[in-house]
Design a protein that fits this description.
Blueprint: H1 21-25, E1 32-35, E2 40-41, E3 44-45, E4 52-55, H2 57-64, E5 69-72, E6 82-85
Antiparallel strand pairs: 1-4, 2-3, 5-6
Length: 89
């Protein structure tokens, strides 16, 4: 399963991103880049830019260890988003 958080609202919409549990348990040495879901505006998927986040192996390990990490997506469509990544307790 892994993480599936929702981003901050920017440009009137949010995104989700999936960080697989396998990457958290055994972080790739080069880290990994994840692509967000399509934009969601109030429960309706809308056309628009996708974004990416890149996490280092150290950041993946931090999340797995229970630390909270805030990351900013790539800037696409003239805006970005923030995700707070933390393991559910």
């Amino acid at each position: 399963m892994g993480l599936d958080p929702t981003s901050s609202v920017s440009d009137d919409h949010t995104h989700t991103v999936c960080v697989p549990a396998t990457d958290l348990a055994n972080p790739p040495s080069a880290g990994a880049t994840y692509t967000t879901s399509p934009p969601d505006s109030g429960g309706m998927v809308i056309a628009g830019a996708l974004h990416t986040i890149t996490l280092t192996a150290a950041q993946l390990s931090m999340i797995q260890a229970g630390q909270s990490l805030t990351v900013t997506t790539s800037t696409d469509g003239g805006h970005d988003h923030q995700f707070v990544l933390t393991m559910a307790t």
